[in-house]
Amino acid sequence: AQSVTQPDIHITVSEGASLELRCNYSYGATPYLFWYVQSPGQGLQLLLKYFSGDTLVQGIKGFEAEFKRSQSSFNLRKPSVHWSDAAEYFCAVGSSNDYKLSFGAGTTVTVRA
Amino acid sequence: EAGVAQSPRYKIIEKRQSVAFWCNPISGHATLYWYQQILGQGPKLLIQFQNNGVVDDSQLPKDRFSAERLKGVDSTLKIQPAKLEDSAVYLCASSSQREYGEQFFGPGTRLTVL
After folding, report:
1. Strands (E) located in B1-114
2. Which residues of A touch B (CB under 8 A)?
3. Distance (Å, whole) CA B37 – CA B53
4. For residue range A40-66, what is the model confidence (pLDDT) as tens digits?
Protein backbone atom coordinates (compact mmCIF):
# COMPACT_ATOMS: atom_id res chain seq x y z
CA ALA A 1 0.00 0.00 0.00
CA GLN A 2 1.16 3.51 -0.71
CA SER A 3 1.70 6.09 2.03
CA VAL A 4 3.20 9.52 2.59
CA THR A 5 4.99 11.03 5.57
CA GLN A 6 5.42 14.74 6.07
CA PRO A 7 7.76 15.01 9.08
CA ASP A 8 7.16 18.70 9.78
CA ILE A 9 3.77 19.63 11.18
CA HIS A 10 4.43 23.36 11.28
CA ILE A 11 7.14 25.59 9.79
CA THR A 12 7.61 29.31 10.37
CA VAL A 13 9.66 31.26 7.87
CA SER A 14 10.44 34.92 7.38
CA GLU A 15 9.21 36.67 4.27
CA GLY A 16 11.92 36.57 1.64
CA ALA A 17 13.63 33.55 3.15
CA SER A 18 13.83 30.16 1.48
CA LEU A 19 11.44 27.34 2.25
CA GLU A 20 11.80 23.57 2.08
CA LEU A 21 9.06 21.12 2.96
CA ARG A 22 9.90 17.47 3.37
CA CYS A 23 7.97 14.53 1.96
CA ASN A 24 8.80 10.83 2.15
CA TYR A 25 6.74 8.23 0.37
CA SER A 26 6.30 4.50 0.40
CA TYR A 27 5.26 2.77 -2.79
CA GLY A 28 6.34 -0.46 -4.41
CA ALA A 29 6.51 0.73 -7.99
CA THR A 30 7.42 3.99 -9.67
CA PRO A 31 5.38 6.60 -7.83
CA TYR A 32 3.36 9.46 -9.17
CA LEU A 33 4.01 12.35 -6.77
CA PHE A 34 2.16 15.58 -6.16
CA TRP A 35 2.22 18.68 -4.02
CA TYR A 36 -1.03 20.50 -3.25
CA VAL A 37 -1.59 23.74 -1.35
CA GLN A 38 -4.67 24.57 0.71
CA SER A 39 -5.36 28.13 1.78
CA PRO A 40 -7.82 28.75 4.62
CA GLY A 41 -11.38 28.05 3.52
CA GLN A 42 -10.25 26.93 0.09
CA GLY A 43 -9.99 23.64 -1.69
CA LEU A 44 -6.69 22.08 -2.60
CA GLN A 45 -4.76 23.45 -5.55
CA LEU A 46 -2.14 21.49 -7.45
CA LEU A 47 1.34 23.06 -7.26
CA LEU A 48 3.28 20.48 -9.25
CA LYS A 49 3.52 16.81 -10.10
CA TYR A 50 6.12 14.22 -11.02
CA PHE A 51 5.47 11.23 -13.24
CA SER A 52 8.80 10.49 -14.88
CA GLY A 53 11.79 12.14 -16.55
CA ASP A 54 13.63 15.09 -15.10
CA THR A 55 13.73 14.69 -11.34
CA LEU A 56 13.56 18.45 -10.74
CA VAL A 57 10.01 19.63 -11.35
CA GLN A 58 8.88 23.21 -11.70
CA GLY A 59 5.44 24.25 -10.55
CA ILE A 60 3.24 27.27 -10.15
CA LYS A 61 3.88 30.20 -7.81
CA GLY A 62 7.66 29.73 -8.02
CA PHE A 63 7.73 26.31 -6.35
CA GLU A 64 9.89 23.38 -7.38
CA ALA A 65 10.35 19.85 -6.09
CA GLU A 66 13.04 17.23 -6.49
CA PHE A 67 12.39 13.51 -6.73
CA LYS A 68 15.09 11.38 -5.10
CA ARG A 69 14.38 7.70 -5.57
CA SER A 70 17.27 6.58 -3.33
CA GLN A 71 15.80 8.56 -0.44
CA SER A 72 12.12 7.99 -1.30
CA SER A 73 11.69 11.72 -1.04
CA PHE A 74 9.95 14.49 -2.95
CA ASN A 75 10.81 17.72 -1.15
CA LEU A 76 9.20 21.03 -2.07
CA ARG A 77 11.24 24.23 -2.23
CA LYS A 78 10.82 27.92 -2.87
CA PRO A 79 13.79 30.32 -2.94
CA SER A 80 11.97 33.34 -1.52
CA VAL A 81 8.60 33.12 0.21
CA HIS A 82 5.88 35.74 0.10
CA TRP A 83 3.29 36.39 2.79
CA SER A 84 0.68 34.85 0.47
CA ASP A 85 2.47 31.49 0.70
CA ALA A 86 1.12 31.01 4.21
CA ALA A 87 -1.05 27.92 3.85
CA GLU A 88 -1.14 24.18 4.39
CA TYR A 89 0.86 22.01 2.03
CA PHE A 90 0.09 18.40 1.24
CA CYS A 91 2.27 15.85 -0.46
CA ALA A 92 0.48 12.96 -2.18
CA VAL A 93 1.44 9.73 -3.90
CA GLY A 94 -0.65 8.14 -6.60
CA SER A 95 -0.79 4.60 -7.86
CA SER A 96 -0.02 3.95 -11.48
CA ASN A 97 -3.24 2.17 -12.34
CA ASP A 98 -6.26 3.49 -10.48
CA TYR A 99 -5.90 7.27 -10.16
CA LYS A 100 -6.15 7.16 -6.36
CA LEU A 101 -4.13 9.56 -4.23
CA SER A 102 -2.84 9.04 -0.69
CA PHE A 103 -2.12 12.27 1.13
CA GLY A 104 0.28 13.10 3.91
CA ALA A 105 -0.94 14.84 7.05
CA GLY A 106 0.23 18.21 5.78
CA THR A 107 2.66 20.94 6.82
CA THR A 108 1.35 24.32 7.92
CA VAL A 109 3.52 27.22 6.79
CA THR A 110 3.45 30.52 8.66
CA VAL A 111 5.17 33.52 7.10
CA ARG A 112 6.34 36.28 9.43
CA ALA A 113 7.07 39.81 8.28
CA GLU B 1 -13.98 27.32 -16.74
CA ALA B 2 -16.11 27.02 -13.64
CA GLY B 3 -14.59 25.06 -10.78
CA VAL B 4 -16.01 22.31 -8.61
CA ALA B 5 -19.03 23.54 -6.69
CA GLN B 6 -20.09 22.23 -3.30
CA SER B 7 -22.94 23.04 -0.97
CA PRO B 8 -23.57 23.76 1.75
CA ARG B 9 -20.28 25.30 2.88
CA TYR B 10 -21.03 24.75 6.55
CA LYS B 11 -23.38 22.45 8.43
CA ILE B 12 -23.97 21.90 12.11
CA ILE B 13 -26.09 18.96 13.24
CA GLU B 14 -26.60 16.87 16.32
CA LYS B 15 -25.48 13.27 16.53
CA ARG B 16 -27.88 10.73 15.11
CA GLN B 17 -29.26 13.28 12.65
CA SER B 18 -28.80 12.90 8.92
CA VAL B 19 -27.06 15.24 6.50
CA ALA B 20 -26.41 15.45 2.77
CA PHE B 21 -23.74 17.19 0.76
CA TRP B 22 -23.89 18.09 -2.91
CA CYS B 23 -21.14 18.36 -5.50
CA ASN B 24 -21.15 19.61 -9.08
CA PRO B 25 -17.89 18.71 -10.83
CA ILE B 26 -16.18 20.51 -13.65
CA SER B 27 -18.08 19.99 -16.88
CA GLY B 28 -16.87 16.99 -18.78
CA HIS B 29 -14.89 15.44 -15.94
CA ALA B 30 -15.64 11.74 -15.82
CA THR B 31 -14.06 10.97 -12.47
CA LEU B 32 -15.43 12.27 -9.18
CA TYR B 33 -14.03 11.79 -5.69
CA TRP B 34 -15.28 12.40 -2.17
CA TYR B 35 -12.71 12.90 0.55
CA GLN B 36 -12.98 13.28 4.29
CA GLN B 37 -10.48 15.65 5.90
CA ILE B 38 -10.37 15.50 9.68
CA LEU B 39 -8.70 18.43 11.42
CA GLY B 40 -4.93 18.00 11.41
CA GLN B 41 -4.96 15.24 8.80
CA GLY B 42 -4.69 14.95 5.06
CA PRO B 43 -7.71 14.15 2.92
CA LYS B 44 -8.80 10.52 2.97
CA LEU B 45 -10.60 9.08 -0.03
CA LEU B 46 -14.10 7.88 0.74
CA ILE B 47 -15.40 6.99 -2.71
CA GLN B 48 -14.43 7.33 -6.35
CA PHE B 49 -16.85 7.40 -9.27
CA GLN B 50 -16.11 6.90 -12.93
CA ASN B 51 -19.06 8.43 -14.76
CA ASN B 52 -21.97 7.09 -12.68
CA GLY B 53 -20.30 3.87 -11.59
CA VAL B 54 -18.41 3.29 -8.34
CA VAL B 55 -14.72 2.49 -8.85
CA ASP B 56 -13.67 2.32 -5.21
CA ASP B 57 -15.67 2.65 -2.00
CA SER B 58 -13.43 0.54 0.21
CA GLN B 59 -12.95 3.37 2.73
CA LEU B 60 -16.62 4.37 2.90
CA PRO B 61 -18.35 3.41 6.19
CA LYS B 62 -21.29 1.86 4.44
CA ASP B 63 -23.35 1.38 7.56
CA ARG B 64 -23.90 5.13 7.72
CA PHE B 65 -22.46 6.75 4.58
CA SER B 66 -23.91 6.55 1.09
CA ALA B 67 -23.13 8.32 -2.14
CA GLU B 68 -24.56 8.45 -5.60
CA ARG B 69 -23.77 10.11 -8.88
CA LEU B 70 -26.84 10.28 -11.03
CA LYS B 71 -26.37 10.63 -14.77
CA GLY B 72 -22.61 10.81 -14.29
CA VAL B 73 -22.63 14.48 -13.31
CA ASP B 74 -23.69 15.77 -9.88
CA SER B 75 -23.11 13.73 -6.78
CA THR B 76 -24.49 13.60 -3.27
CA LEU B 77 -22.90 12.19 -0.14
CA LYS B 78 -25.17 11.32 2.76
CA ILE B 79 -24.51 10.46 6.38
CA GLN B 80 -27.26 8.78 8.39
CA PRO B 81 -27.04 8.72 11.37
CA ALA B 82 -24.14 11.06 12.07
CA LYS B 83 -21.61 10.43 14.83
CA LEU B 84 -19.36 12.87 16.65
CA GLU B 85 -16.33 11.48 14.81
CA ASP B 86 -17.86 12.47 11.46
CA SER B 87 -16.97 16.10 12.17
CA ALA B 88 -14.67 16.99 9.30
CA VAL B 89 -14.41 18.84 6.01
CA TYR B 90 -15.87 16.87 3.12
CA LEU B 91 -14.09 17.62 -0.13
CA CYS B 92 -15.29 16.83 -3.60
CA ALA B 93 -12.83 16.63 -6.48
CA SER B 94 -13.06 15.82 -10.16
CA SER B 95 -10.61 14.95 -12.87
CA SER B 96 -10.39 14.22 -16.54
CA GLN B 97 -8.68 10.99 -17.44
CA ARG B 98 -6.70 12.84 -20.06
CA GLU B 99 -4.40 14.14 -17.33
CA TYR B 100 -3.82 11.75 -14.50
CA GLY B 101 -3.50 13.13 -11.08
CA GLU B 102 -4.71 16.66 -11.54
CA GLN B 103 -7.72 16.49 -9.34
CA PHE B 104 -9.60 19.77 -9.07
CA PHE B 105 -11.03 20.33 -5.61
CA GLY B 106 -14.08 22.18 -4.46
CA PRO B 107 -14.02 24.43 -1.37
CA GLY B 108 -15.43 21.70 0.85
CA THR B 109 -18.27 21.40 3.34
CA ARG B 110 -17.34 21.78 6.99
CA LEU B 111 -19.51 19.48 9.10
CA THR B 112 -19.77 19.84 12.86
CA VAL B 113 -21.58 17.10 14.77
CA LEU B 114 -22.61 18.06 18.30
Report:
1. 5-7, 10-13, 19-24, 31-37, 44-50, 53-56, 65-68, 75-79, 88-95, 104-105, 109-113
2. 4, 32, 34, 36, 41-46, 49, 51, 90, 92, 94, 98-106
3. 23
4. 878 899 999 998 888 999 999 999 999
